[in-house]
Design a protein that fits this description.
Radius of gyration: 19 Å
Mean pLDDT: 95
Shape: globular
Strand order of the largest sheet: 1-9-8-6-5-4-3-2
CATH superfamily of the largest domain: Aldolase class I
Number of strands: 11
Structural class: alpha/beta
Strand content: 5-15%
Low-confidence stretches: none
CATH class of the largest domain: Alpha Beta
CATH architecture of the largest domain: Alpha-Beta Barrel
């Protein structure tokens, strides 16, 4: 029923993609998502390993996913400013060596590596935060554009464009398939994205609260407790800006920004960030775990397969309900 160009390009049953979460995106989770008929994605540095071990860590998680599924899955490689291009290029080579057939890129110029990746016979998906970036990605010959709105967790762009207007704007601007991301966690969001012209959705935060995701239980419990005002965007003056859970440590950053603290002082306080501490070590209050606004919609920890089934089921129920409303 949901056969779109995204399904055809990726070889999947349902047009649902796991977001490219660098630390939470472990091989077991990617395999579970793919086994359920959707598209799993191994993160750039699952669990977090120091730079000298990052490539081996990535290779290990790719191989773990390959052990657990014979279905298609991908690897996410962020290109954001400040990332060492040598590490990016080496990570791409690891993915190619391991036979990964799809690479998603984000946070930088899609023209940097797309040609090289596609010359290896591998498909490329790129995350765009505005129309200009989407058009640029299409010009770089990416296979699919992922249009991500400001509701998403993690690294964000400066334009603050929400998902609802972004998706039709991007769909109208490019001819390649568009995947909607940011603010989607259930079948209603799935159906809304498809109504806006998208041919699939991407979810990151929703897959944090799964049995297969290796983030710590403390983080999963904090996510389940979250309400609609519990995420915040900080670092507008010390980019890249980021949406995280509003923890005491994050509140200190928020207060410093409101008080006009010099950006150099804020940058020193932030350092390299504390995502690993919160995501993997359970130090929630002193960390900055990335998560989107949809955290407030998540009320239980489930197997990834159950989440995908529920999305498809709820989407079909919503179609029926809308048809009934239309008849009136």
């Amino acid at each position: 029923m949901w056969k779109t160009r995204v399904c055809e390009i990726l070889g999947i049953q349902y047009p649902i993609l796991e977001g490219g979460m660098s630390i939470p995106g472990n091989g077991e989770l990617a395999a579970a998502v793919s086994n359920a008929g959707a598209f799993g994605v191994v993160g750039f540095n699952p669990g977090w390993a120091p730079p000298e071990q990052q490539l081996d860590n990535l290779r290990d998680h790719i191989r773990k996913a390959k052990e657990l599924t014979d279905k298609p899955f991908g690897v996410n490689i962020p290109l954001f400013a400040g990332q060492e291009m040598g590490r990016v290029q080496n990570s791409i080579e690891v993915a190619l060596q391991e036979g990964v057939q799809v690479i998603t890129t984000s946070g930088g110029n899609p023209g940097l590596f797309t040609k090289h990746i596609k010359n290896a016979g591998v498909k490329v998906l790129h995350v765009a935060l505005n129309v200009r970036q989407a058009v640029k990605a299409q010009e770089a010959s990416v296979d699919i554009v992922i249009a991500s709105g400001y509701e998403a967790g993690g690294l964000l762009g400066p334009d603050e464009i929400p998902t609802l207007p972004l998706i039709p704007l991007v769909v109208d601007a490019v001819s390649v398939p568009v995947v909607a991301a940011g603010g989607i966690a259930d079948g209603r969001g799935f159906l809304a994205a498809m109504a806006l012209g998208a041919e699939g959705i991407q979810m990151g935060t929703r897959f944090l609260a799964t049995k297969e995701c290796h983030v710590c239980n403390e983080l999963k419990e904090a996510l389940i407790r979250a309400v609609d005002t519990d995420t915040v965007v900080t670092r507008r003056n010390t980019p890249p800006r980021v949406r995280t859970l509003r923890t005491p440590w994050v509140c200190k950053i928020e207060d410093m920004e409101k008080q006009g603290t010099p950006k150099e002082e804020i940058a020193r306080f932030i350092g390299i960030g504390r995502g690993r501490e919160a995501l993997m070590l359970g130090e929630i209050e002193q960390g900055d775990p990335s998560m989107g606004v949809v955290s407030a919609m998540i009320k239980e920890i489930q197997p990834a397969a159950d989440i995908i089934k529920s999305i498809i089921s709820q989407a079909e129920e919503t179609i029926y309900r809308c048809n009934e409303l239309y008849k009136r």
